[in-house]
């Protein structure tokens, strides 16, 4: 069995540009075949042709709009039925700008469908398929705004907090199954998500903006090191460990039969 066959197929959503496109290239270099998913089919086809010629792998392109339930269901069914898929990258997502009070709520609903509903359905399908196979990897792209919601748009921050929580809960559910899971929390990354959401990224200090290639390489290094949560910008992993430890300190007191003394 050669290395390409042994890696299986990586399903990458939002694969036509930015973080997803970089992941596709890096996973191809690791010997994965690819199933590339996005709305922009011509761009996907161009990327697929390049990846095939450079890495000698199989690349399939699937045009899908994950804000549309029928497209999500099609991809979900593929995950459940195709045993060659061994990695899911839940990368497709969109940001939003402005205050919740002034928001276009239809736009927010589409964002929730993409950032939360599609991610959940695909993670569920992958978890079922990978558990059955006793192997597989689920990577969910969240954001550092999950940890600092006051600094960004309310609904986007909440959607990424959901992805973080989903990953942590799913990790507990998958314990002992042979399935790996990771949430990646990038800071500001240089991609097209900003202009698509109407945000002027040129106003963000340069020292806060990471190139997509550096972000993905750090995330894959975190995966190789067995991290559940990878924060590419965070210099000292002990800071995250302390954050998790603080949660566990509170845990025994979060549900008790009596209200705390300060409320009585």
TrEMBL record:
Signal peptide (from-to): none
Keyword line: Oxidoreductase
Pfam families: adh_short (PF00106)
Keyword Cell inner membrane: no
GO MF annotation, one: oxidoreductase activity
Keyword Isomerase tagged: no
Coiled coil: none
UniProt family annotation: Belongs to the short-chain dehydrogenases/reductases (SDR) family.
Name of the molecule in the record: SDR family oxidoreductase
